[in-house]
Amino acid sequence: MSMPIVDGTAKILADPHSYTEEARLHATLAKVRASEPVSLVDVPGYQPFWAITKHADILAVERANRLFTNWPRPVLMSAASDEMQSAAGIRTLIHMDDPQHRVVRSIAADWFSPKAMKAMGERIEQLAKQYVDRMREAGGECDFVQEVAVNFPLYVIMSLLGVPESDFPRMLKLTQELVGSDDDELKRSAPADETMNALLEMFQYFQHLTASWREHPTGDLGSTIANARIDGEPLSDVDTMSYYAIIATAGHDTTSSSIAGGLRALVEHPEQRENLRANLDLMPLATEEIIRWVTPVKAFMRTAAQDTTLNGVPIAAGESLLLSYVSGNRDEDAFTDPFRFDIEREPNKHVAFGFGVHFCLGAGLARMEIGKFLAELLPRLTSIELNGVPALSATTFVGGLKHLPIRYTLA
User: Which family does it belong to (predicted)?
Assistant: First the structure.
């Protein structure tokens, strides 16, 4: 263990409920960035970790992917959950390092290429229109998260995988249980190990589909994964199921959080909303600002492969680092006026998608879904306001709004 440099305020990053109070969270992280940007967090229930809160330091760690590895602890979880996941042998893309990561990532890479995104554009536009029409049919009031934001990207990613539409509700429940394990409303109602049971239930579901895809290959991503070969051999059952799980969760919950959080930001900043509505050509910039503002992936973990230093702080081999994307995306040294929501922000070098070899595989799809939904909604929107108190999910990994009650009029 390195000589501890402890700033007690950084422990907020190990508290899932801190993410439900954004103002307090951001104020605390601003103090951490200013006083001890690399500080040790050692709290009950978790293995110790170094909190990395500066944008430049996050990039430095992400660039040095051989020095700072994803395996064995890619996500902040309780010590008990760390042990359970290790015992289950879960190995998704976020658990892997090169060269294995590069080879396994390539299996799905073509499905998220610019060419593939262009081919999907028309279908996503149709879906966006369908869900905006549903908002109109709802009579001018809805919980935008539960009625729109979680369903639109769910439909996109499950269709891409090849999951039957009749099973979409089941997939929604399982993905929310997986990323909402720290939230009293979203998690399963039983003990902590029920989160692992949700993952195992997802694995069991995809086992049946895998058998079908291998016997009768289809033209979807799920079939591509099921029939992939590395050095002539198929992926192991665990690696195959893990691949489906990361695509299903990462391709759904992050985008739904961004769409919901983006709409909330536009409601609360009407001048920005009207600017975007009048100038839809600003959508690419607005989309990046929404992603920075929301930061649906709160953090990732890395492990030092050897003794090193970061920002002058000694880090010992085997120690964990938490890359706080939420903090990095409000870093005063990286962004001008970082607490201002600005749809014309440029440059906007946010770290919400990560950086380097682990840059989000589905970033292009997420950007397209956010942009096309808002491009459909805003021209038809004549008024919108909050119709209650928004509620954020408790999490230390992926999350955002779980309720956004709104009142609106649509053309």
Answer: Belongs to the cytochrome P450 family.
Cβ contacts of 395 within 8 Å, gap of 6 or more:
16, 19, 179, 180, 182, 183, 298
Structure confidence by residue, pLDDT tens digits, 111-157:
999 999 999 999 999 999 999 999 999 999 999 999 999 999 999 99
- pLDDT band of residue 2 (cuts 50, 70, 90) is very low
CA distance linking residue 369 with residue 376, whole number of Å: 11
Domain containing residue 175: 8-410
Q: Using one digit for the tens of pLDDT, what is the confidence trace for 41-66?
A: 999 999 999 999 999 999 999 999 99
- Is the residue at 1 inside a domain? no
* Overall domain count for the chain: 1
CATH number where 51 lies: 1.10.630.10
User: Do the domain assignments include residue 112?
Assistant: yes
pTM for the predicted model, two decimal places: 0.95
The pair of three-digit structure tokens given for residue 220, joined into one six-digit string: 């979807």
Rounded-to-10 torsion of CA 7, 12, 15, 20? 180
pLDDT in tens, 316-374: 999 999 999 999 999 999 999 999 999 999 999 999 999 999 999 999 999 999 999 99
**Do the Cβ atoms of 369 and 287 come closer than 8 Å?**
no
Sign of CA dihedral 191, 196, 201, 204: negative
Contact 154, 374 (CB under 8 A): no
Q: Is residue 2 part of a domain?
A: no
In a domain, 55, yes or no: yes
